[in-house]
Amino acid sequence: MTRKKSGKGEMSRSRLMQAAASEFAANGYHRTKVSDIVRRAGLTQAAFYLYFPSKEMLHQELMDVFFKKLWELSDAGRKVTPLKGWEVRGRMRENLLDLFRFFAEMPELTAIVLTQAPEGEDLHRKLAQIVAANLRSNQEAGHVRADLAVEVTAESIVAMLYRLTLRFLLTGEKTAEQLADEAVALLAFGMLQA
Amino acid sequence: MTRKKSGKGEMSRSRLMQAAASEFAANGYHRTKVSDIVRRAGLTQAAFYLYFPSKEMLHQELMDVFFKKLWELSDAGRKVTPLKGWEVRGRMRENLLDLFRFFAEMPELTAIVLTQAPEGEDLHRKLAQIVAANLRSNQEAGHVRADLAVEVTAESIVAMLYRLTLRFLLTGEKTAEQLADEAVALLAFGMLQA
Q: B143 vs A179: CB contact, 8 Å cut-off?
């Protein structure tokens, strides 16, 4: 880990993490060997062990980085609370855009995390709880309609974001920007002519 | 099949179908034996073969009945097209209620169909296509906002209905009526104060 700070070392380390994410996604964690990871990264087995004590530790670090960012992004609804009414829709769009951009940058890990069973159910519920807490604050702040059922809305939002990510973003059919625009159009004011 | 029309025969037949749906859901199609089905139905093996030539045919019939109804319900958006604007929200709620009631009546088959992989992806896409076609008609009729992206909206609706069904309806946490009310509140006019 002493090499962690140097520029070249940081690049090799990052290449190993990217390569590992790709290999885990393609072949599963258990079937992936350190030799597969270093081959994809264009590095040597010796280089691998300069940065990571084991495949297990690399995997753990990948997951830690991913989830730290995911919790932060799923909690972005709190940024809405102090805003003026006319700023809310724009902030919602930014929040969605940040999330879709993150998923687009980490497509392999995103695919693994969003489709894994049965842990996927726990994750979905935890994300919905975070979204629900911010919905409540934003109802109190007068931004979110008071007649909305918070739990059902939060679960719906999470389900929708999972699906749009898997169906359009990771397939390359739509960009993060397109999805943020199209999702906010539905979420902000719904389907019907007022 | 000559017994199909009589009242008592129809009841036994229906009991066998219900029992089979429960067994398939609990233990999977392949591990379920005809003897399991008749035990749950409280009937004899001989009775089974009066109504069904094989486990395979019973399974096929269960699926045929389920999907016939599912296609019909997923196409309910067409009932919106000829309405007056003020009737649309109520019809949306009825459409959702019909769907949730159907899922609640067939919980075992619903769980199998909504969670099966990889066929589940084809089903999700097919349902989204049906919803999308009606969204387009309802945009032309002036009921659905013209700025909505039809594909993303259709995929979002299907994902939301899957999730609400699995998370709240099949767990018994909410009734079909509650879910229809809460889902239409979000879908019709979105999250934000106008």
A: no
Report H helices in chain B. Answer: 7-27, 34-41, 45-51, 55-74, 88-105, 107-115, 119-140, 150-164, 176-189
CATH class of the region A63-189: mainly alpha
Closest by CA position to A186, among listed A163, A68, A134: A163
Confidence of residue B6 (pLDDT cuts 50, 70, 90): low
Instruction: State yes or no: pLDDT of A172 exceeds 50.
Output: yes
Domain layout of chain B by residue ranges: 2-53, 61-189
Q: Which residues of A touch B174 (CB under 8 A)?
A: 152
pLDDT band of A5, cuts 50, 70, 90: low
| Dist CA A63 CA A113 (whole Å) | 9
Predicted confidence at residue B3, as pLDDT, reads 47
Complex confidence, ipTM? 0.87
Residues of B in contact with A182 (CB under 8 A): 148-149, 152-153
Return the CATH fold of A2-53: Arc Repressor Mutant, subunit A (1.10.10)
Identity of the residue numbered B131: V
Hey, are the CB atoms on A162 and B159 less than 8 Å from each other?
yes
CB of B40 within 8 A of CB of B22? yes
Say which CATH class B61-189 falls into.
mainly alpha
Instruction: Count Cβ neighbours within 10 Å for each residue of B92-104 and write b for 16 or more, e otherwise.
Output: bbebbbbbbbbbb
The two three-digit tokens of residue B14, written as one number = 């229906």
Name chain A contacts of B160, Cβ cutoff 8 Å.
156, 159-160
What lies within 8 Å, CB to CB, of A97 at 6+ separation is: A176, A177, A180
Please say whether the beta carbons of A59 and A24 come within 8 A: yes
What DSSP character marks residue B20? H
